[in-house]
Amino acid sequence: MDRKIISAALLIKKAKKVSALTGAGISAESGIAPFRGSNGIWKKYDPEEYAHIDSFMNNPAKVWKMISELLDIIFKAEPNKGHLCLSAMEKSGCLYSIITQNVDGLHQAAGSRNVIEFHGNNMLLICMACGKKIKTEKEIYRKIPPLCPCGGILRPDVVFFGEPIPQRAITESFAEAKSCDVMLVIGTSAVVTPAAEIPIIAKENGAKIIEINIESTPLTDAVANISIFGKAGEILPEIVKNL
Ligand code: NAD
Fold first, then answer.
1. In what order do the strands lie in the sheet with 18-22?
2. Does ligand 1 come within 6 angstroms of the Cβ of 117?
3. Which of 70, 94, 125, 129 has its CA 20 to 30 A from that of 39?
4. C-alpha dihedral over 158, 22, 116, 106, to 10 degrees?
5. Could you tell which of 101, 159, 160 is best to mutate to test the pocket of ligand 1, judged by most ligand atoms within 8 Å of the CB?
6. Could you read off the pLDDT of 10-51 as tens digits, one per residue?
7. Residue 139: left if φ>0, alpha if ψ -120 to 50, beta else—which one?
8. Which residues pair with 21 in a beta bridge?
9. Using CA atoms, how far apart are residues 105 and 122, in angstroms rounded to an integer?
10. Up-side HSE of residue 4: CA atoms within 13 Å toward CB?
11. Which residue from 32, 42, 102, 210 has its CB within 8 A of the most atoms of ligand 1, so it is best to mutate?
12. Which residues pair with 100 in a beta bridge?
């Protein structure tokens, strides 16, 4: 483990440009359960069903019940050591960008600035009738589904399963993947595409891949140069100590 951490730190130190791809696992230690974990609200709600755009369109109130529970958790969550380490790395020039699949805003709350939100953000709501954008506040979703002043139904500004990724997020993320020489892949099961393609594109363009996860993923044997098994909030501080 120590040898892997030192090797990862050396790769980061030598690199000209380091990017990170993060997934739900980095926020697990902030109390937000990942989809593919054993606990949290996903025991109650099947994400494949509740996070699909067809479910939302068919029954917005039903899906909003799940969204409102998730939002209550996100509102209480604080950035953890993993988020804070990435923010510190950006400040000290060791990390250029973060591509996150998360919709919880915790990287920005930790102070990270160059964050590409691949799947949008729950902190903004959009009216499906007039397109008005409204900041997510607890009062707004107390009655579900929440409505815009125009009477239209509000949806979170996130990408549901079955929806395309916004073109800008794709363009920016793939550009990062092609131009970095080290990519940290933290807390993602790497099964949700096209996000799962990002480390593969980075590798094909010559980057070294450092994976941090509590368990192995499809990237572990096929793509990662170094796989460090452990919690992001414990491994990242060790890497930062060695930078
Ligand atoms: P996922 O739920 O599919 O996988 C989570 C991964 O994190 C797993 O591989 C797991 O082993 C790992 N993990 C769990 N705890 C960890 C820890 N403490 N440290 C390091 N790794 C840990 O998540 P995904 O790959 O991001 O894809 C699922 C989709 O669901 C994404 O779009 C994601 O944004 C979304 N989602 C987001 C949130 C959030 O915003 N916090 C929460 C749930 C789901």
1. 115-117, 97-100, 18-22, 182-186, 208-213, 226-229
2. no
3. 125
4. 70
5. 101
6. 999 999 999 999 999 999 999 998 887 666 677 788 888 888
7. alpha
8. 99, 185
9. 8
10. 14
11. 102
12. 22, 117
CA neighbours within 13 Å on the CB side: how many for 19? 24
User: What is the end-to-end Cα distance of the chain in Å, rounded?
Assistant: 16
Answer positive or negative: Cα dihedral of 22, 212, 16, 223: negative
For ligand 1, say whether the CB of 121 is within 6 Å of any of its atoms. Answer: no
Report which ligand 1 atom has the smallest distance to the Cα of 215: 11
Check residue 40 and give its pLDDT: 66
CA of 10: how far to CAs of 20, 223, 239, 242, in Å?
16, 19, 9, 8
Is the minimum distance from the CB of 213 to ligand 1 under 6 angstroms?
yes
Dump pLDDT digits (tens) for 105-154: 999 999 999 999 999 999 999 999 999 999 999 999 999 999 999 999 99
